[in-house]
Every structure is written in C-alpha cells, then in structure tokens.
Prior knowledge:
Blueprint: H1 2-35, H2 43-77, H3 87-92, E1 98-105, E2 108-114, E3 119-121, H4 125-163
Helix pairs in contact: 1-2, 2-4
Amino acid sequence: MEVLRSIIFALLFFPAVIGAFVWCVVLLGKILSVALPGRRPDWRDSLLRWGAWMAGAAAVILYFLGAGSVAMSVNESSHGADSTPALECRDDYPMDRIRGQRGSYFPLGFDCVLDDGSTGSSANGYFWLNTSIAVSALTSFGLVITMGGIAEHRARVALRKPLVTAPDNPPDSDTCS
C-alpha cells in the first residue's frame, strides 16, 4: 500500500512541478510576443483563446500540486514511529483530542478527526489552493464565454452591414424621364 501511495504522489506531484515551470516559460513568451512590435493582426483573439487555455492549465496544475501534497501528507501520517497523529494535527490540536486524520481530494484538504467525531482543518493552505483552483477555472470559463460573445457580435455586425447599403447620392430628377 505504501508503494502505491508513493507512486500516486510521484504521478501527481512531479509532472505538476514540471508543468508549472513550462507554464511560466510559455507565459513569459506570450507576454513578449504581445508587447514587442510585429505582432499578428488578430492578436486580441489569439490572446483571449490563449488566456483561456492557460487559465485552465493553471487550474489543472494547481490541482495536481495540491493532490500531490495531500498524498504526501497521507503517506507521511501512516509511516514511521512518530507519524500518527499527523504532525499537522499535533501542531493545531491537543494530543488527547486527536483520533485520526483523513485526506480529501475534492475539495483538497487534510483534516484531523477529533474525539467528538468532528473534523478540523490541519492547514489553511488548502483553502487558498482550492480558491486559486476555482478562480483559475472560472477565469478560463469566463474567457471562453467572452470569446463566444465576441464571435456572436461580429456575426451580427456582418449580417447588418449588407442591409444598410443605401445609395450615398439620390438620383437626380433630371435623369429620370
């Protein structure tokens, strides 16, 4: 079982760290491509599309980093002579009240189980991580909706243009017989 937890940690955490580095490099490249002269004429559409993808990627990377952190906390709390109760729980609650701990992957968290059956959060970092994931996902969703709204607006304007083709100069009364 401990080998499986170590594998899950490696599969979640290490690719997320590499993905975070790649995400930062790509972000820097995109900022430079927009800021420097010689950009494409449709750079605004490209930037919206790219922003939606990057916000979605940020949400996925943050989730995998958090899931790796939960897997690491669960792994550490179940191995070794001084592992139970978890260090996170010992720091926040009296030892006589702690009955166990449990990890949660949705929403991300590592909770301490107390003697009265209630649970208490072991760290405030998971709140901020879950909030960051939600904000990134909602930003991605909002950018996709914005792209759809812009495309619809352009289509409506394109349909209206042919209907407003009135002649600039009315015909003269002399030329009509």
